[in-house]
Amino acid sequence: MSNFDLAGFRKAKFQEREEDVPLSGLTAAGFGGFEGEGDNAKPVPVVFKVRGLTAEELAKAEQGADNSKLLVKVAEGLAGNDTEKVAAMMDGLGLSDKTPAALAKKLAHVQMAVVEPELKLQDVVRIADAYPTDFMELSNHIYNLTGKGKVAQVKRKPSGKTTASKPA
Question: Torsions phi, psi of 131, nearest 5?
Fold first, then answer.
């Protein structure tokens, strides 16, 4: 017997689950700017806001990883035998025929789930390449939020086990 409140689930409103993620590598590099002057200047923390992904977004990233192989073939067809043109086209898209499908999915996940600042795929590729630990930090937070699901706006039922406190 299930104790799942299907009626309550059907009535519930859902809100995206979001979280701020401080990124130490980008902070240390000075991409958040500096407070103070001279030797007393300290880097301002770089913080990205991320959210959990939906099932549709997870599927789109999966499909995108599969499509990246197709894009390589299309680029090769358009550029003919000029491998430099193919490489330039794929670099412009942040992809290559050597990009593992798992990484292509993760790049898409991060690009979709970073709420602030709004990133292009090329930005995510650069972060992953230059600051892989920050990239992993972002993706780990995104997957954690995705696993928790959206926040359900439901009315909590009283337990009935304790009496309500009365004002003194």
Answer: -135, 70
